Amino acid sequence: MKKIIVLIDFSEQSENALKVAVSLAKKHDSEILALHMLELNSALISSEAGMHPEQTVFFLKLAEKRFKDFLNKDYVKDSTITPIIKHFKVFSEVNEVAKKHNADMIIMGSHGTDGLKEIFIGSNAEKVVRNAEIPVLVIKKEHINFKIDRFVFASDFKEDKLPAFKKAKDFAAMLRAKLDLVYINVPGDNFLSTADAYEQINVFLQKGNIGAEVAIYNDYSVEQGILNYSESSGADIIGIPTHGRKGLSHFFMGSIGEDIVNHANMPVVTFKI
């Protein structure tokens, strides 16, 4: 892992994300790209719309000063950090920055149960997740020394999830964490008998040439199943696959993936299918 993007809005949540980024960077000799997006848009920075270029420069200089103060912390010493300031809150730009710098991961902070807030001022982190081509790690609280021992990856184990699984496997190996695979079985149209569920899982494992065991966990909803299984198994982090801009995978049925990110007490990492 050579480069990590950490999203900064100068809040407590983004400082929690920065601490995790620093912890990982020191262990893997990585560079940190600290990315901040200004609360400006094309209308505001257009002189025809009333804001003059010198006002834009003022906001840029203000952001640069806040960046300097924000990064002036003892725990970031001896870390390689490159500040990046973008003019707009355009979430696709996060992915563009990642591509330009060949970044391996995005780390962001979140309030959690109050919704994904303040990663950028007044916006939603799920937009970053949907645009990101690389894994996105969402941090809920402060971690002085970020260490993961048990990593739960939840999936429906259909063939289209193989790319996400391979990324999750690499992520677990990088962290030297035990990868725990789980299929959540719920009542309703998507219910499978134990035999049918294992048949679907075995096809997935064979196509991916994967030598691993998958637990089947029964619950009333996919979201609760993932959360309950992860907590009962002593997990340190939850991994979920996403379709990105096309919306969350069929496995998550709407906003379940976002709900997991919101309601989980532990870090959550998403992987693009």
TrEMBL record:
Pfam families: Usp. InterPro entries: Rossmann-like_a/b/a_fold (IPR014729), Universal_stress_UspA (IPR006015), UspA (IPR006016). Residues 1-140, 149-271 form the UspA domain. CDD domains: USP-like. Gene3D superfamilies: HUPs. PANTHER family: STRESS RESPONSE PROTEIN NHAX, UNIVERSAL STRESS PROTEIN UP12. Belongs to the universal stress protein A family. This is Nucleotide-binding universal stress UspA family protein. The lineage of its organism: Bacteria, Pseudomonadati, Bacteroidota, Flavobacteriia, Flavobacteriales.
